[in-house]
Amino acid sequence: MLLASPFQPKRSFASAVKMRQSLESDFSSAVLFLQTYTGPHSILKNAASPVRVALDALFQQATLGACTTEAPTDKVELLSWEKWKTLGDLPKEQAMQQYIKTLDDLVDNWRRSPSLRRAASDSVAVTETTPLMDRLPAFAQELDAIKAKLQAQASDHEALLDAVNTLTHDTKAQFSRETRQIELVRSQTAETIKGLEAQVQEQKMEMVLLREKQHQLQVVLERSIVFCVEDHFLKWWKGTMQYLQDRYVRMLIISCFLT
């Protein structure tokens, strides 16, 4: 029977510590990668996506343990809180492992990401002097700050959209009112023009009728018997008066010669 070596527990404990440190290091890198991610996966950039909600819940479980806080009022934070609540008493180590595995399944070679290397190089001094688990609350605070900033930007964006929609609605309403006024003026002008044209046509018809009546009256006058008699009488009267005048002149001439 082989006796157990007295040094074996020390090696197991050292191995466990090393594995723990490796897990914490991978988890810290995964958190840092997600915070600085700018790749093509929209589900990692959208805070309301199911993947991001699950990752945020695992992060809370890995850093704070079981959920003991009250439900937040923000809709996105409420989704993460509800997912965190379902994790129950899941150990922090398992939450870290699930967090890392989720990234492994979504992004190939995320540990070699340029943004992760840049962010890691900027925090080398802090990493060398501060234990990883002590830095996780700071990561949580940074993540909360990023969430708050994103929510503020989203709120500003929604306010801007509301302002644009309001301005667009007001502009459309004003344009519609002006368009209706223009159409009303146009229709009134068209009706006025039609009325004037109708009046002109009526006046033309009246002028034509008056001319026809004048012509008819002239024809009737020319053909009237009384008019003919009167015309003959006037002609006879003019001839008689001319004859008498001529006779009177002849008599004066004769009387002048006789005297």
UniProtKB/TrEMBL annotation:
Read off the Pfam families from this record.
Answer: ACBP
Give the matching SUPFAM superfamilies: Acyl-CoA binding protein (SSF47027)
The answer to whether the entry has keyword Amino-acid biosynthesis is: no
Locate the coiled-coil region(s) and give their ranges.
Answer: 186-213
What family does this chain come from, according to its entry? Answer: Belongs to the ACBP family.
Q: Which organism is it from?
A: Thraustotheca clavata
**Single annotated GO MF:** fatty-acyl-CoA binding
The UniProt entry, under PANTHER family, shows:
ACYL-COA BINDING PROTEIN 1, ISOFORM A (PTHR23310:SF62), ACYL-COA-BINDING PROTEIN, ACBP (PTHR23310)
- What is the official name of this protein in its record? ACB domain-containing protein
- Keyword field: Coiled coil, Lipid-binding
InterPro entries named among the record's database cross-references: Acyl-CoA-binding_protein, Acyl-CoA-binding_sf, FERM/acyl-CoA-bd_prot_sf
One GO term under biological process is: fatty acid metabolic process
Occurrences of domain ACB (ranges): 23-112
The keyword Repressor belongs to this UniProt entry's keyword annotation: no
